[in-house]
Design goal:
It is a single chain. The chain is an alpha+beta fold and 150 residues long. It has 4 helices and 6 strands. The protein has a 6-stranded antiparallel sheet, with helices on both faces. A hairpin with a 2-residue loop joins strand 5 and strand 6. Helix 1 runs antiparallel to helix 2 and helix 1 packs parallel to helix 4. The radius of gyration is 14 Å and the shape is globular.
């Protein structure tokens, strides 16, 4: 599944006729529509000089979490740790911000530009413990492609 999506991601990121946000939106929609266990897909970015993340393009149910302080929730923790975070069961996380009662698992991969963590891709799943190393590597590839256009 990821192998068939890889060239589509590259095609999207290489489409200079679209704005960066439009390309990110297409990536979110592509992932949500084609990967059964990706129920919400979005990008968060560092909000200027503030120690917080701001929601960027996403696909899925609307969220109230437009701004996330560094350190809060899975996304906020990744903003501080600079490391991938796979959560097989969100109920087992003390520092989890619930987006929806249907979410069972989450994966967040930081996005680096010139060695600086400037954002992340965040995936929520309504399936318990669905994420594998393949998901992790695929999302790292996506972030590397996205970094080229930021």
């Amino acid at each position: 599944m990821f192998k068939t999506l890889t060239p589509q991601i590259t095609t999207i990121t290489n489409n200079a006729e679209l704005t960066t946000d439009a390309r990110l939106q297409q990536i979110c929609e592509l992932l949500k529509e084609n990967i059964p266990h990706y129920d919400w897909v979005g990008f968060y970015f560092k909000n200027g000089d503030k120690n917080e993340l701001k929601l960027g393009p996403y696909a899925g149910a609307p969220t109230d979490h437009i701004i996330i302080p560094f350190g809060k929730g899975i996304c906020g923790q990744v903003a501080v740790s600079n490391e991938n975070f796979i959560v097989p069961d969100v109920k087992a996380q003390d520092n989890y911000i619930a987006c929806s009662i249907t979410v069972k698992a989450e994966i967040v991969i930081p996005l680096f530009v010139n060695g600086e963590n400037i954002g992340q891709i965040d995936i929520d799943s309504n399936t318990p413990d669905p994420f594998t190393k393949d998901d992790e590597h695929f999302l790292e590839f996506i972030n590397a492609e996205v970094a080229k256009i930021l």
